[in-house]
Amino acid sequence: MELLDRFVNLGPTVVMPIIFTIMGLAFGIKFGKALRSGLTVAVGFIGLNLVIGLLGDTLGPAAQAMVHRLGLELTIIDVGWPAASAIAFASKVGALIIPLGLAVNLLMLFTKTTETVNIDIWNYWHFAFTGALVAGVTGRITYGLIAAAFNMIIIMVLADLTAPMIEENLGMPGISLPHGFSAAYVPIAIVVNKLIDMIPGINKIDISAEGMEKKLGVFGEPILVGTILGILVGVAAGYPIGEVLQMGVTLGAVLVLIPRMAKMLMEGLLPISESAQQFIQKRTSKGGKIYIGLDSAIGVGHPVTLAVSLILVPLTVVLAAIIPGNKVLPFADLAVIPFALVMIVPVTRGNVFRTVIIGLLIISFGLLIATNLAPLHTQMAIDANFAMPEGASLISSICDGANPLSWLFARTGAFEIVGLVIMGAISLGLALYNRKRILKQSSKMEI
Questions:
Q1: 123: helix, coil or strand?
Q2: Domain that holds residue 397
């Protein structure tokens, strides 16, 4: 346990090359090629995080300025995902989440209830967060650990089901995204997308990134879309002209750089992903397909994801001011809006119009969820000895405080055994459905 903690604490930029090199060797890749793949993944990951950090550093102050301009007086402070993850890992559930998560993944692979090898162990904090909420509601750590395991099972199944869409729409073969925040919005996106299909006229609206480029010419390219949206955000924030232009150029750069960093990361992943498929198929007649489960950060580079995110940032601030019952002041987590959209874009097949509609719905309800969970979120922070912001009596976050799946676990968890039975039935039902799908798919591959 202590050795595993020390290894994880080395950080993703060190751990990822080691894991991928070992995986490459295990799947029959020569050492030099496996090491190169691992290091390429690490370089892409570093570059991706640098650009995402730039996005957050640029949008954060602009969002704060918009909040001040609107004179919002909301009482729950959005402390952001770094605080939420620290609180989750500092909880008693968080202390055991990595070995628990690895055990769940291995069990699901053994029982053929998943096709995903989830190596995104840093994001196990999403499952720990859910478990800590349930432990807080019930006062029982055991219930929290069970909830965390059920949460992971649901997310793993959603990752499998969306992997073909990720491959087709985001250009990431052999990759799935078992991300506790991003995947939680997939069921909502599927339902709303189906509802839009039933509305005559509206169902014909199809605005794609490629369509925008064709109709708008050079002004539809990501670099100019980002620049124009950045300028609009800067104006909304009340920046002077020089800072408005800086905002525009910076966000234009972000829309260009994120896809390129994601492409480099994929360059390192492909040899290992392909070798994994060959390895499985050679050694078992019913092996099916294997996906490498990664952080949804690798998918934020889609032009629709980024463009819609930039539209939604100022709209989120406005929604916070006008939605009845909301008490959350959007702040630190406005930069995570792209992560909420990563797995929605494949569901809508890159339709800008549908992505905006779904985005507005999940943010609107997300603010109310974050408001509802704020007392529990705050108590978790106090129990974890988190340093509360000065003057704040209640805290929350958009990630994962506004997560609908975490909220569902927390509120059903209040019924203790009955609640766990309900969520267990959902997670195990999904797992069995996934197993049936996997076995059916494997039998087709045999033929």
A1: helix
A2: 2-446
Q: How many residues does the chain have?
A: 447
Pick from 261, 251, 258: which is nearest to 225 by CA?
A: 251
**Residue in the structure block whose two tokens are 């990759």:** 175
Rounded Cα gap, residues 309 and 393, in angstroms: 29
Chunked mean pLDDT (size 10), the chain, 447 residues: 63 73 79 84 76 72 74 77 78 85 91 89 89 91 95 97 91 89 95 94 80 53 74 83 87 75 72 69 62 84 83 85 88 81 93 94 95 90 72 80 94 91 95 93 67
- Name the 3-class secondary structure at 111: coil
Cα dihedral 298→291→154→16 (10° resolution): -50
Task: Report pTM.
Answer: 0.81
Burial class (CB in 10 A: 0-12, 13-18, 19+), 167: middle
- The upper half-sphere exposure of residue 357, i.e. CA atoms within 13 Å in the direction of its Cβ, equals 22
197, burial (CB in 10 Å: exposed 0-12, middle 13-18, buried 19+): exposed
Residue tagged 């909502």 (tokens): 188
| Contact in structure between 434 and 157 (CB atoms under 8 Å) | yes
Q: What is the pLDDT of residue 218?
A: 47
State the pLDDT at residue 78.
81
Torsion of CA 294, 295, 299, 305, to 10 degrees: 150
Residue whose structure tokens are 């092996």: 287
To the nearest 10 degrees (0 to 180), the angle between helices 404-413 and 141-170 is 160
Number of domains the chain is built from = 1
List all residues 6 or more positions away from 85 whose beta carbon is below 8 Å from its beta carbon: 125, 129
Q: What whole-number distance in Å separates Cα of residue 127 and Cα of residue 98? A: 10
Start-to-end CA distance of the chain, whole Å, equals: 44
